[in-house]
Amino acid sequence: MADELTVGVLGTGIMGAAMARNLVRAGHTVRVWNRTRAKAEPLAADGARVTGTPAEAVEGADVVLTMLHDGPAVLDVLREAAPALRPGTLWAQSTTAGIDAIGELAAFAHEHGLVLFDAPVLGTRRPAETGNLLVLAAGPVAHRDAVAPVFDAVGSRTVWTGEDGAAGSATRLKLVANSWVIAATAAAGETMALARALGVDPQSFFDAIDGGPLDMPYLRAKSALILDDRLTPPDFAVDTAAKDARLIVEAGERNGVRLDVAAASAERLERAGAQGHGGADMAAAYFASFGPDGRPSA
Questions:
Q1: For the whole model, what pTM was predicted?
Q2: Cα(129)–Cα(21) distance, rounded to whole angstroms?
């Protein structure tokens, strides 16, 4: 297979759109589809072909890349695309779908003769836009060179976790990583909320931990989004983070582990979403620390 591929991208939200742009920049022929077409239309100016159906996006594709909301959404869209999928097509499944969904997706891949790569990514909007995602991938060694141009276009590095995409080893690693991201973000929001409630200047907190083991760039970055009111456009939206948090909790329960922090974080994110912050950056879970309307007292 030549390095210049035809890639069908299904899902052009924050991450999918950025990945599609980088695929075009890398010289690939890119067809995109999104259920809300208006979200895909701007990609036409970048050189992608915007299609009206999933089947049109994947017809004749060397690689299909899925970056949708969750596992059920992926399965629904692939079923729509099924008439145009040819056996042997490489499928880079990058949606954070959760462990339970992997089996259903793998069964679909087997039924249609697709070569499945379990390939979630680590990173948010900015690294997605610059092609600096970390690709976590599991899939057959014999086909890795063929899919490598896609992973190289969207990420700065690929970490291989196994040879069987159906086993979900990359998804398992993604859930572990996201459990840390979600917990750290929730802690940053609660710390900023407590500082506000106690009349503590957040800068005095940062000065106190400066350069020590408690200091971390991620804490400062997420806190800055809150303090500077830069929660939109999101790097990682509240609603998406809430979905991921629930997948993490479910994965723990299925494997005999109680994840209290993840469960509380999921509840905080869902509460922030109900307050109207679902499309804001996940740091907006900060508002869940306050009243029903999410408004801090003066």
A1: 0.95
A2: 8
